[in-house]
Design a protein that fits this description.
CATH class of the largest domain: Alpha Beta
CATH superfamily of the largest domain: HUPs
Radius of gyration: 30 Å
Number of helices: 18
Helix content: 40-55%
Order of helices and strands: EHEHEHEEEEEHEHEEHHHEHHHHHHHHHH
Largest sheet: 3 strands, parallel
Length: 426
């Protein structure tokens, strides 16, 4: 059975690169009907914090990644590591240097391993110095703890970023010295920024919890991360998780770095918003607004469902619905000053707004169809294009130049609010 692991260090939040590594492990386990296991590498007592662990586990769950078996904590296994190191000392393959235990690396040897993505990889031991197994403070060194844990956890495949590729020959030597079966290795390319460099915070290297806070949907983020170095073929981009699991194989991961594009992620998130069931979209956005402490006592869930349906085509993240909420539920709205200057400060703007206000007051039904008819009739009377009434009205009632269809907006807002906002520019 395939057994893979993700081994985060609880010294910070789960960031986008680590989340992609976890996802590739999880997808491969699910595709192979194997197990995805978590190991917590918490040997750094000073920097490891329970709040970071909570954030990491919460982010994995939010991204639909569940795991089998209990969490393995390295901090609880120091005696085990020391026992393995002692075996190497007894075999003459390691030595004490004060309280530390050091592994002897024979020189002029070749170390090789077969990588599932890169093929055969060769190293010379001339480039590898003697390796610390147990540090002077009696904590295990990273490479040694990895080998011991992966062996004891019966890990069959080690899937990790290619920044770890220089660690692998050191681990291979320890596997051989201990006489332990070796897992298969797969080193996935790093995620790069649009300029081809390492991903930085300004390019999107931020924590998963921040993406959640920015209004991204977990299924969109999973979909996007899956395409960071892997592709299903036929230029398909939008894929449900179950379909990704069916198609994903770590052997198909590219050798070259994947480019992270925030605009592409936002576009993809928008596609998921468009396809979301209206009831779920209304609830997701409502919960998002509640988390931001934006929803007040005036919130009308039924009305909100109609609003989200009207705006879903134009929204890329749940955060976009903050300004939408304020348009329909706040007494005061924020105006785009450039839009006001362009559409509401022309010599004839006040007269046009007055005529629009009169048309709204005179409309008996005041629904989407009747308001549109009134406006088009008014445009004919004034010998203007309908757009010359629509654009300034949109800015006057919403503060913005874009949004849902104007007449749909007006119906949802209601006559009273529309008149009040038009009056500001009469």
């Amino acid at each position: 059975m395939v057994r893979v692991r993700f081994a985060p260090s609880p010294t910070g939040n789960l960031h986008i690169g680590s989340a992609r590594t976890a996802l590739f492990n999880w997808l491969y386990a699910r595709h192979s009907k194997g197990k995805f296991i978590l190991r917590i590498e918490d040997t750094d007592k000073e920097r490891s914090k329970p709040e970071y662990l909570d954030e990491i586990l919460g982010s994995l769950k939010w991204l639909f990644m569940d795991w089998g078996e209990e969490l393995v904590f390295q901090s609880k296994r120091f005696g085990i590591y020391k026992g393995y190191a002692q075996k190497l000392v007894e075999k003459g393959l390691a030595y004490f240097e004060g309280p530390a235990i050091i592994f002897k690396v024979d020189k002029a040897k070749s170390v090789s391993f077969d990588d599932m993505i890169r093929g055969k990889v060769d190293f010379s031991t001339d480039d590898i110095k003697d390796q610390v197994l147990i540090k002077t403070d009696q904590t295990p060194a990273y490479n040694f703890a990895c080998v011991v844990d992966d062996s004891e956890m019966k890990i069959t495949h080690v899937i990790r970023g290619d920044d770890h590729i220089s660690n692998t020959p050191k681990q291979v030597l320890i596997y051989e010295a201990l006489g332990l079966p070796m897992p298969q290795f797969a080193h996935i390319p790093l995620i790069l920024s649009k300029d081809g460099g390492r991903l930085s915070k300004r390019h999107g290297a931020t924590s998963i919890s921040e993406y959640k806070n920015m209004g991204f949907l977990p299924e969109a983020l999973v979909n996007y991360l899956a395409l960071m170095g892997w592709a299903p073929g036929n230029d398909i981009e939008i894929l449900p998780i179950d379909e990704i699991i069916k198609l994903f194989d770590v052997k198909d991961v590219n050798k070259t770095g994947a480019i992270f594009d925030m605009d592409k992620l936002s576009w993809m998130n928008g596609q998921y918003i468009k396809k979301m069931e209206p009831a779920r979209l209304a609830k997701e956005t409502e919960n998002f607004l509640k988390d931001k402490n934006i929803v007040d006592d005036k919130f009308d869930a039924e009305k909100w469902r109609g609003i989200t349906a009207a705006y879903r085509e134009r929204s890329r993240t749940l955060e976009d619905f903050i300004s939408v909420y304020r348009i329909f539920f706040s007494d005061e709205i924020e105006y785009d000053e450039k839009a006001v200057e362009k559409y509401l400060k022309k010599p004839n703007s006040k007269d046009i707004m007055n005529r629009c206000k009169t048309a709204v007051e005179s409309d008996n039904k005041f629904d989407k169809a009747s308001v549109e008819e009134s406006y088009r009739k008014l445009a004919d009377e004034l010998k203007l294009k309908a757009a010359e009434l629509i654009h300034p009205t949109r800015v006057a009632i919403s503060g913005k130049t874009v949004g849902a269809g104007l007449f749909e907006m007006m119906e949802i807002l209601g006559r009273e609010k529309v008149l009040k906002r038009l009056s500001k520019f009469c």
